[in-house]
Each structure stands twice: as structure tokens, then as C-alpha cells.
Design goal:
Largest sheet: 7 strands, parallel
CATH class of the largest domain: Alpha Beta
CATH topology of the largest domain: Rossmann fold
Distance between the termini: 54 Å
Radius of gyration: 21 Å
Order of helices and strands: HHEHEHEHEHHEHEHEEHEHEHEEHEHHHH
Helix content: 40-55%
Oligomer: single chain
Strand order of the largest sheet: 3-4-2-5-6-1-7
CATH superfamily of the largest domain: P-loop containing nucleotide triphosphate hydrolases
Number of strands: 13
Shape: globular
Structural class: alpha/beta
Length: 413
């Protein structure tokens, strides 16, 4: 298919310069790593590649929410796309496998775990895919023994295919160290790398320390109450806007969701173990509810453009993860806000989580994760530096000029 015809089907007038460079790299059968901020349009690269090649392209996604969202949008535009996941019945999976064998699909979305299924591998080897695309490729660096090890088996699967496909990797957040690790783990050390800046001009960054001077565990109920009061206040100020509230455990997600519903807010919740994931995603995507309370199982690459506010009820385990999730706001380019709520005890818990090896990290990986966590701690504690400048420095860019009005520190000068 001609590129012009493919873009017309996707309702796109033209590719951006980096998208064109990336697509031409893949079409020239050269591996690719693209590092661009959220909402830049990375998914359009592998979508247009599949349509131009008119051959099956496999897209590896980390989460079901992302997988379902991508497929829904492509099917709405008439693109032959499908997914294979654990939510499907045996009959549904057989139907998708049959479409693969008959050459009917252009895009197949799978998680790394589903990619290791023997029947899936057999069907894909026979289909002779044109490309393997790893979306949210930074996830390759966050896996290890006992936790999503199948990310580390992607390279083995690619090398098992009868005809070597071109490999593309895409992410919005990668330090120079992470970049090298991605290339090594995927076996594409000679890949062409396209790197853009991490700054999002339309997102204002804000931080609120909650319960300063209060003890950690002893005052946890009071700290939680104050966080909830702030969240409710922000939701009332943003009445009618679409909002994501992230927190770090399933228990916290469900308790916060129940609390918000009792306060009169129409909210949905989402985490890795909840039922009816497609229904929950659809309720939020369609606007039936305006507030989504979630763990990091929701959000990576989910293309809901008009999210005006992203609140973190508690800090994550690194400035890289925080930048990724804050970037869910304002994908339509309009002014939006990312707010981080924190107490010192939150970071104590996160350090313990890492150091007690619950993430199964060792050596350089452990050091890298602790560095990312301390960078987020510095970001939260800082009252003077430009927050966007701190993020740029963390990702290996020059801090540059102050953002003036796109973070609370610069606004308060």
C-alpha cells in the first residue's frame, strides 16, 4: 500500500519529520530505537509500517489496557488489527490464530507472556512477520527473575523466526544507561537511534508535600486523609475534566475509589487483577466516568487525548516512571497539569521495596533503580529549581532555561 493511502485511512495528513525518518529506517530493513516524549506519535510509525508492507507486524505491549485501546482505535479506522490476551476465551484466541494463518491481519498486539505461548509462536513462525515492534521498550529494563521474565525472551523469539524481521523499539523515557540496556537485551546494538527531548510544553508540573513534620507509620491515617482532601478539592476545581489518579497498590486503588464514589464523584478503577478490564477502559475512554483510579497497569500509551489532570496519590519508584505517567496528561497538546502528592514515609517504603529485593534487582540494575528513586525524591523536595530542568538533566539532556510558568517552582519565583 502506498504511504499516502495508508495515512489517509488513518486520518493523518502527513508524518512528522522524526516519524518519516523512523519509518524509512524500518522500511530499509534496519532496526530502530525511537525515544520521543509521550503523545509525539510513536505508534503511528509501526502502524504505517504494517500498512505499507501489507504484511503482519507484531506489536509487543506491556499491559492489557494499552493493547485493548490500540486495537479498538485501529479497528474503528478499518485497519485489520487484533490482540491475543488472557481475557479471551479459547474460541476467541482460536479465531485470531486462524486469521493469522489466513494472512488476514496486519497488526497483532500481544504481551511478552502471550508471545511465549507455543500455539502463538507456531502461528507466527508460519506467518513470516515483517516486523517485531516493542512498544514502551523501557519495560525491558524493569524486568528480572520472578517478575515478567518473558521480556528477556523477546530476543530469543525474534532469532527463532525463519526470516529475520526488522525490530523496532519505542519509548518516551530512557536514560543513556537504559538506552544501552534496551539495545543489548533486544540484540539490536547496531540500531538507528532517534532521540527527542522529554519536555512537554503544555504540562504544568506541581508537587505538594502532605503532612510535613508528621511521623510516618503512626500518622499514616491522618496523612491519607489529607491526601484525599487535596484530591477531592482538585477534582471539584476540575469538574467535567478527565482525570487519572495513580497510586501504588491494589488495596489503595480500591479504597480510594470507594472513598471518591462516596464523595459523589463518578469514578472507575483499574489494576492488574481487576475483572472486566475492557468495560472499565471503555467507560473512561467514552466519558461515562471522568475519573480513573489506577495502578501503573493503566496508562502506558493509552491514547486518550483530553486528560487534563494526572494526580499521583503516592510517588513511584523513580523519576523515569513518574515522567512516563505524568505524560498521560494533555496528549492533545492543550494545557494540563501533573500533580505529585508525597510524604517522606512514601520514599522510605519505596527504598525498602527496592533494597529488600522484592523487585529482584542486582548490581548495576539495583544501583540504577535506586538512582532513579533518589532523583524523584530530589524532585519532590526541591523548592527552587525548574522541575522540567531536573527531568531533562536526569535523562541526560542539558537542563536549559527555566520553564517560567510550566512548573510550580518557576511560577512562584
Amino acid at each position: 500500500m502506498e504511504l499516502k493511502k495508508a495515512l489517509h485511512a488513518l486520518s493523518i495528513e502527513a508524518l512528522r519529520s522524526f516519524q518519516e525518518e523512523a519509518l524509512n529506517t524500518l522500511l530499509a530493513d534496519r532496526s530502530l530505537l525511537t525515544l520521543m516524549p509521550t503523545s509525539a506519535g510513536k505508534s503511528l510509525i509501526f502502524t504505517s509500517f504494517a500498512m505499507v508492507q501489507e504484511r503482519l507486524t507484531i506489536v509487543i505491549e506491556p499491559h492489557l489496557a494499552l493493547e485493548l485501546d490500540q486495537v479498538r482505535q485501529l479497528q474503528d479506522k478499518g485497519v485489520a488489527a487484533a490482540c491475543l490476551n488472557s481475557l479471551q476465551s479459547s474460541a476467541e484466541r482460536k479465531s485470531v490464530l486462524a486469521r493469522i494463518e489466513q494472512g488476514e491481519l496486519l497488526l497483532l498486539f500481544v504481551t511478552p507472556e502471550m508471545l511465549q505461548n507455543r500455539k502463538v509462536q507456531t502461528a507466527l513462525r508460519q506467518a513470516d512477520p515483517a516486523g517485531i515492534m516493542i512498544d514502551e521498550a523501557h519495560c525491558v529494563c524493569q524486568q528480572g527473575p520472578g517478575f515478567r521474565e518473558d521480556y528477556l525472551r523477546i530476543r530469543e523469539f525474534v532469532q527463532s523466526l525463519p526470516t529475520p524481521p526488522v525490530v523496532g523499539a519505542f519509548t518516551a523515557t530512557a536514560t543513556p544507561t537504559t538506552e544501552r540496556y534496551i539495545l543489548e537485551q533486544l540484540g539490536i546494538e547496531d540500531a538507528h537511534v532517534i532521540r527527542g527531548g522529554v519536555t512537554r510544553d503544555n504540562i504544568e508540573l506541581r508537587v505538594i508535600e502532605v503532612g510535613h513534620g508528621l511521623g510516618g507509620r503512626k500518622a499514616s491515617d491522618l496523612i491519607e486523609l489529607r491526601k484525599r482532601e487535596i484530591i477531592c478539592k482538585k477534582l471539584r476545581q476540575r469538574k467535567g475534566d478527565r482525570v487519572i489518579i495513580y497510586t501504588n497498590t491494589i488495596d489503595r486503588v480500591e479504597k480510594l475509589h470507594r472513598y471518591l464514589c462516596k464523595q459523589g464523584f463518578k469514578a472507575e478503577f483499574y489494576h492488574g487483577k481487576c475483572e472486566d478490564k475492557p468495560v472499565r477502559l471503555e467507560r473512561f475512554a467514552s466519558g461515562k466516568v471522568k475519573v480513573m483510579v489506577a495502578t501503573n497497569a493503566f496508562g502506558l500509551g493509552v491514547n486518550i487525548p483530553d486528560i487534563r489532570l494526572v494526580i499521583h496519590h503516592a510517588p513511584l519508584i523513580g523519576l523515569d516512571d513518574y515522567t512516563q505517567e505524568a505524560g498521560r496528561a494533555g496528549r492533545d497538546g492543550k494545557k494540563s497539569t501533573a500533580l505529585l502528592l508525597w510524604h517522606e514515609y512514601d520514599f522510605t517504603i519505596n527504598r525498602r521495596l527496592i533494597k529488600e529485593n522484592q523487585l529482584e534487582l542486582k548490581g548495576a540494575e539495583l544501583k540504577e533503580r535506586l538512582h532513579a528513586l533518589e532523583a524523584l525524591h530530589d524532585y519532590a523536595c526541591e523548592n527552587h529549581k525548574c522541575r522540567w530542568g531536573m527531568i531533562r538533566e536526569f535523562f541526560g539532556e542539558k537542563s536549559g532555561k527555566r520553564c517560567k510558568k510550566r512548573c510550580d517552582n518557576c511560577k512562584n519565583r
